[in-house]
């Protein structure tokens, strides 16, 4: 079973998070940031991952620590659940529409975490989420998951739609990349013989 969990407590956040890569899209999420809850719920649904995420954060400051630390924790459990990456497809790309927004997401589960985020967000917030925290979350996830992620905005004017398209596209791309290639299910998808 490709499942992992983490509890992580700092002076700023107290997080418990679990991820099942072979789930059905169920989620139980309470991050203290409503829009982030919505993004994690749709990430689970479109990735077909089961996610349980709870965060108590220093929201009297703002949402930054909570959002970034959730990205860290989700990245850590993702890497643990993927394990040695044996049999996975590894690469994928998705172009996803969300009303007027159109986002391209290409990923490589390479062991080398990197984010290229070419996504202009017109408004400073979506709900109670500071829009600049979207990139902070994705950087934290990419680094800790060991996934190279390229996100490009191809069209869009509505910040909510653009952010939602980013999360849905990432979820769909990850769903494809972590799927098992039955013909090569015992192979590590790298000429090195391991994913670094």
Structure description:
The chain has 196 residues and is α+β, with helices and mostly antiparallel strands. The chain has four helices and ten strands. Strands 1-2-4-3 form a four-stranded mixed sheet, covered by helices on one side. A four-stranded mixed sheet has the order 5-6-10-7, covered by helices on one side. A two-stranded antiparallel ribbon has the order 8-9. α1 runs parallel beside α4 and α2 (64-82) packs parallel to α3. The longest helix is centred in the C-terminal third of the chain and has 20 residues, at 159-178. The chain is globular, with a radius of gyration of 16 Å. The two termini are 22 Å apart.
């Amino acid at each position: 079973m490709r499942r992992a969990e983490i509890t992580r407590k700092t002076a700023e956040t107290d997080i418990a998070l679990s991820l099942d890569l072979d789930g059905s899209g169920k989620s139980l999420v309470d991050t203290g940031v409503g829009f982030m809850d919505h993004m994690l719920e749709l990430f689970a649904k479109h990735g077909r991952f089961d996610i349980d995420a709870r965060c108590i954060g220093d929201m009297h400051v703002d949402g930054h620590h909570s959002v970034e630390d959730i990205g860290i924790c989700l990245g850590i459990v993702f890497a643990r659940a993927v394990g040695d990456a044996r049999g996975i497809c590894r690469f994928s790309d998705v172009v996803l529409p969300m009303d007027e927004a159109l986002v391209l997401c290409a990923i490589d589960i390479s062991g080398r975490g990197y984010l290229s985020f070419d996504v202009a967000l017109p408004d400073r917030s979506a709900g109670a989420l500071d829009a600049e925290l979207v990139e902070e979350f994705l950087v934290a996830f990419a680094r800790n998951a060991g996934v190279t992620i390229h996100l490009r905005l191809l069209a869009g004017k509505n910040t909510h739609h653009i952010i939602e398209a980013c999360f849905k596209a990432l979820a769909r791309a990850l769903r494809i990349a972590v799927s098992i290639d039955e013909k090569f299910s015992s192979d590590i998808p790298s000429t090195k013989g391991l994913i670094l």
